[in-house]
């Protein structure tokens, strides 16, 4: 890569990437539980194989587990006072101050850019953005939008508000605010000549900022504690098949990218940048979803891609290298389901999905070892039925989150008697992972009716400082309609 192709020189980039390790381990370890690390798998993991020319990935020893404590700041007024309660806030009602479409850049189409939320895309949690944290949205792609705008749902002690964090790429070459230019930037431009074919980001002729176009983000982004002053969004690879007008069979995905957030009020202060090197391995082509998880004790971002061989892959933050293991990872289900959740303290990755029998399935991976592999499938204490997958009819099932205070996996969207149950199901991870995993039904009370059948790919996100789950399911396109956000307080918080 030539110097003029990148805004940061290699030495500075390596310093920034190494900074992830020092900041990340302390930040997320404080959310962990007092449980012992995961039991070792029954077979010895095979050695990982780095791409040609790559330095071996360095593995930091696990940090000391810090006991879970309640957040030190008061719970905000928009969180229910009683665990188990849920409330819905509608834009204009006093708590949710605006709609997602209200913060679209003037040169982009607010109508089409709701696809950043609605089309096979998710969010991540920034803990230092807002008074009690924020959800950060990156998405779009395919027929939804080309927009690479980064948007946040930020918090104050009394309100929630959408804010624009980036200046999205003007793919047409114009930043005029007329409807024709807006449409051209959001959905009209053919991206094939406008993006680097390997990195899959804007060429220097289009923008000095090496930003990927709008993509189906699924559950593939992660939040990192740096390099931005308020955190960073990290995408380990750009799935080419999830980009509008860019259906190339040549790549599973492009290089990793980081969006550093230094300001909550000035979009121009926050920038996309390339991270590390290109993946050096071959693959069998991309099919969704892209799922990722950050493991601070190792300084790695693990990522798993649909039908691309299911190899264990990670991006090593210290070296800036992609690494492909020599063994398979999770056995992935259909393209409309799946999340990978990190469990601090236990040093586990959980792949939570709807399996082919339309039931909840939880696979686990021990990431306390240098070369991890899929270690087993949980034996749940109760079978949990879900809406059966049917092409073109069934919504995505991604209704899970880990609550560090209760030390429970929370599951929504469970069906009883053919209808969605108004309850959250909590799953405890046993000390012996091959034992039965206890399941407890927790009724959802309060004023909100959570319609679990509305799923796009937006996941319920646990926000630690708020002691609450926030769910933003759909961004409404039409003027005059109001967005809504659901806030649920888990048991044990």
> How does the overall form come out from the CA principal axes?
globular
Biggest sheet: strands, sense, closure? 5 strands, antiparallel
Structural class: mainly beta
Query: Low-confidence segments, ≥5 residues, pLDDT <50?
Result: 1-36, 39-67, 247-251
What's the rounded overall pLDDT mean?
84
Number of helices: 3
Strand content: 25-35%
Q: Please tell me how large the radius of gyration is.
A: 21 Å
Sheet with most strands: strand arrangement: 1-14-13-12-11
Helix share bin: under 10%
Terminal residue distance = 48 Å
Number of strands: 30
Commentary on this structure:
- The protein is mainly beta and 493 residues long.
- It is 7% helix and 27% strand.
- It is built from 3 helices and 30 strands.
- It has helices at 10-29, 115-118, 179-188, and strands at residues 48-49, 85-90, 123-126, 134-137, 151-155, 160-164, 222-224, 232-235, 256-260, 271-275, 290-295, 300-305, 311-316, 321-328, 339-343, 348-354, 360-366, 374-377, 379-380, 400-403, 408-411, 415-416, 419-420, 423-428, 436-437, 439-443, 445-446, 461-463, 468-471, 484-488.
- Strands 1-14-13-12-11 form a 5-stranded antiparallel β-sheet, with no helix packed on it. Strands 27-2-30-29-28 form a 5-stranded mixed β-sheet, with no helix packed on it.
- The protein is globular and about 60 Å long.
- 55% of the residues are buried.
- The model is unreliable at 1-36, 39-67 and 247-251 (pLDDT under 50).
